[in-house]
Every structure is written in C-alpha cells, then in structure tokens.
Amino acid sequence: MNLSSLKSLNVSNKTVLVRTGFDVPVEDGRVTDVFRIQRALPTLDYLAKQKAKIIILTHLDRPGGWDKNLSLRPVAEALSHLWRRKLVVIGPSAKNLPEYDIPHLYFFEHNILETDIKSLITQMRFGDVAMLENLRFYEGESKNDPEFAKKLAALGQAYVNEAFSNSHRDHASMASLPKLLPSAAGLDLQRDFETLSLVMSHPKRPLVLLLGGMKTSDRLPTLENLLKLSDFVLLGGGLANLFLKVKGFEVGQSDNWRKDDERTARTMFLNFHDKIRLPLDAVVSRKASAAAECVAIDKIKPGHTISDIGPKTILEYSRLIKQARTLIWNGPMGHFELKPFSHGSLALGRLVAGRSKSLAFGVAGGGETIEIIRRAGVVGFFDHVSTGGTSMLSALAGRALPGISALEKP
Predict the structure, then answer these.
(1) Which one of 20, 26, 139, 368 is most buried, counting C-beta atoms within 10 A?
(2) What is the pLDDT of residue 259?
(3) CA angle 12, 15, 18 (to 5 degrees)
(4) What is the DSSP letter of 176?
(5) SS3 of 395, please?
(6) In the chain, which residues have pLDDT < 70?
(7) What are the Cα distances from residue 255, in Å, to 233, 240, 247, 249, 266?
(8) 155 close to 55: Cβ distance less than 8 angstroms
(9) How far is the C-alpha of 294 from the C-alpha of 309, rounded, in Å?
(10) What SS3 class is residue 359?
(11) Which run of H or of E encompasses 368?
(12) What would the pLDDT profile of 297-307 be if each residue is shown by its tens digit?
C-alpha cells in the first residue's frame, strides 16, 4: 500500500486538520506519559514551518457525552509545555482571539455543533496552532456519521493523520474525514506503518511474538494471522488465561472473556499448538492487592487471581527469545501496575530490549507496553517502538485499518 506522504501535500498558507493520537494517561488533571505527544512533534513542527494554520483533532478515553472530567485541556497543557508554547484557553463565548507575539497554542473549549468557530480560525495567523475539545464528546465521531465528518472538514483545507494508535477505528475523523479533503500520512504514522509492513513481508527468522494484556476479545481476531506469521507466540495476561482454560487448567478468578472466545481459542490451539507457548507457573493472589505467591499452573485454585507469570515461565520464554531474530512485543504479562506483579513484564522487556538492534530486530508497541519499557529505561534499545497497540497487531496480521486505507494513493 502506498500512502500519500505529508511532504507531497500542499500545506503552505492552508488550514490543516491534524488528527493526533493524544489518548494519554491523565491523573489529577495532569498528563503522566507524554510519549505519544512527543512522537507527533516533528509533524507539527513541519506544518508550522510551512506556515500552515494547524487545527489539532484528537480524543481522550471513552466519555459518554460531554464530560468535563475528560476534557483535553490537560493534554493541551502538556503539548504547550513540550512545544514551548504559551497555552491560551478560548472560552465558548469568545468572539476574538487575543494577540501574542510569542509562540502559543490556542485551546478552543467550544462545542462545534452549537458554536461556529470558523471566524476564530480565520483570525489565526499562519503558523498558529489550536486544539479542539475531545472528539468523543460527539456521538457522530464513534458512529462515523458522515454529517459530523463534513462538519469537521468545513474547518480546514487539508488533513493529516498522525494517529496510528487509533487508525484501526472506523470513526468519522479517521475514515470519513480524509476522503473529504486533500489528505496525507503524518511523518510518524508513515514510519510506523512502513516499518511494520517491512516486518510483515520480510521478517528474519525465527520470529517470536510476545502477546499479553487483558483485551482478550480484541486480540483474538488478529491472533490467528499472527500465528501464521510467527514461529512462536509467547502468551501472557488474558490470552494466556483463556488458552490455559481451553487446555483444562483452573484459572480461578481470571476468566474475564466471552463464551464464544473459548470456542475460537480451542480451534486455534488445535491448529497451532506447536507454536503457542503458555505459562508453566504463575504469581497469584486472593485479591489484586494481597500478598503474592508463586504456584505451578496445575496448582491454581478457584479463589486465585492470576497476576503475573512465574520464574519458570520467564526462564522458558527467555530461552525462545534468545533464539529469535525478529521480536515483537505487545501487552504486559500481568498486572504490572502493582510492583509484586511487575517482575515478569519488566524481566522479559529488558531481555527483548537487550537483544534488539543487534542480535534481533525488536519491535514494541501499545500504551501499556510503552509504559513498561519506559519504566525499565529501555525505550531507546528497541529498533522500533510503535505508538499503536491494536493497530500494530492488526497491521502485522495483514488486516485493513480504516484510517490507513483512507490515505491510500488512488
């Protein structure tokens, strides 16, 4: 697939809508991880130097309507700090923009379905940047409403997708909006997609995939194709628990999946049992915050919660990781947020990082995975760190991503 590139798009003295993936963790009104924001800065810098008016479109979490607790204002504050621009908040009643001689970032608090902000955008100078409120405050975004897409398109003259992490979503700003304006891939999105496409088409063997996290139902549809691509798949988290259940093991309180998922996993295990590797032992607890104990997989009791992989599993997974020439990692091995259950994720993360850029080509991706490798201090050790989680896995599995397909050259 050939994507329309940013540098081939005429953006000089144009108003450019930039869809970013700023769905970042916010605690007590403050962004706690700016990785995804940092990755968009080269694209924003390029557009500013081309004297474009930049309108940032993005979302945060999954609000059920207009929710001030999920406002993007903390994200705008983080971006203004990273980009060294003064944040200027523009309230819904404002008719005019204040003038500043220093670089700044406008944050428009308006509901664009109730207030026309075109006059404010007209007042922006070329090279200025503004961020709109949370796109998911609007029902039309997640429903891919064509009228909402037209509402967004009317605000600009060109579109750039710098939200690889959200490109698997069939949403208005991802799939419909780019078809209404001259469009292109952002610099980071293009690098992300091209790197993953290369891994998928010409991987060095053996290829070992580490797959964890708790989004069992989300990952199952791509897992079958990933198994075809991989030599070994090392499972942790919810997927590991599902396949352990299918094999007849007790998984205690860790059976948070749909009944249909068991049938899918059973068929998949029959077809790919030679590639799937499951934990040999686990760190369990009676409650997520209770004291942990390590038990063999066949010693798990109904009252247990599986919270991490154990040392025998780490040793076996490490043996396979050391054989790999391509390593792909998405998702933690357990409840890494709590220190007693972080050892498996951190240990394997450090090993994968240590093998990357020399003995193997190492790729990591997804919000939780990025958090782990940042905590371990090994982000720079990987050959490639993708901003996407589900998008990364879908791309590797050869599945079409709506946000990417909309950027394909005719």
Answers:
(1) 20
(2) 83
(3) 105
(4) I
(5) helix
(6) 1, 287-290, 410
(7) 20, 10, 13, 11, 15
(8) yes
(9) 9
(10) coil
(11) helix 367-376
(12) 999 999 999 99
> Which neighbouring-strand residues pair with 139?
none
* Residues 340 and 283: beta-carbon distance below 8 Å: yes
Which ranges of 64-169 does DSSP label H, i.e. alpha helix? Answer: 73-82, 118-123, 139-142, 146-153
d(CA 334, CA 321): 18
Strands (E) in 317-378, as ranges, are: 326-330, 361-365
Cβ neighbours for 125, distance < 8 A, ≥ 6 positions apart = 53
Report the alpha-carbon distance of residue 89 to residue 104 in Å, rounded. 10
Q: Is 179 helix (H, G, I), strand (E, B) or coil?
A: helix
Give me the residue label for tokens 């709109």: 132
Helices 35-49 and 73-82 sit at what angle, rounded to 10 degrees?
70
Q: Which residue type sits at 175?
A: A
Residue the block writes with tokens 């990785």: 35
Any idea how long the chain is?
410
The rounded radius of gyration (Å) of the Cα atoms in the chain is: 22
**Residue 106 near residue 124 (C-beta atoms within 8 A):** yes
Q: Are 360 and 325 in contact (CB under 8 A)?
A: yes
CB proximity list for 334: less than 8 A, separation 6 or greater = 212, 236, 237, 283, 306, 307, 308, 309, 341, 342, 344, 345
Q: How far apart are CA 332 and CA 330, in angstroms?
A: 7
Q: Which residue has the tokens 């050892």?
A: 343
Identify the pLDDT of residue 290: 59
Measured CA to CA, the distance from residue 300 to residue 278 in angstroms comes to 14
Cα dihedral 27, 104, 45, 113, rounded to 10, equals: 70
Spatial CA neighbour of 340 closest among 307, 373, 303, 296: 307
Cβ-contact 203, 229 below 8 angstroms: yes
Cβ atoms 398, 223 nearer than 8 A: no
Tokens of 156: 């600009």
